[in-house]
Design brief:
Layout (H helix, E strand, L loop, with lengths): L1 E6 L2 E5 L13 H5 L1 H5 L10 H23 L9 E2 L17
Antiparallel strand pairs: 1-2, 1-3
Length: 99
């Protein structure tokens, strides 16, 4: 969830899905179906906690920053706040799960 100023003291709040492979490649198909993935059947984690932190620090956060700049949400001083509200690990990219 991202909150950013839009001018005249107003702020905009949006949900910005970010799906990446371990190598940092974006996965738009997963981003478009994020609701289905968030409701999919749970399985064991694919990453160890330190791997997960590294993925967020070096891949997810920079990807989010680029996306916000592209959308014009992080212009000027770049002030925005972001909060992780959901997280899914997908071992392979199978078909979108049924609900």
């Amino acid at each position: 969830m991202v909150e950013a100023p839009v001018g005249k003291g107003e702020r905009r709040v949006v949900i910005q899905p970010i799906a990446v492979k371990p190598d940092g490649t974006r996965v738009p198909a997963v981003e478009r179906q994020c609701d289905a993935w968030l409701h999919a059947t749970a399985a064991s984690a694919a990453f160890q906690p330190d791997e997960r932190i590294d993925l967020f620090r070096h891949t997810v956060e920079p990807t989010l920053q680029r996306e916000l700049r592209h959308k014009g949400a992080a212009n000027g001083d770049g002030s925005y706040s972001a909060e992780l509200i959901g997280y899914v690990e997908i071992r392979d990219q199978p078909e979108v799960p049924e609900r």
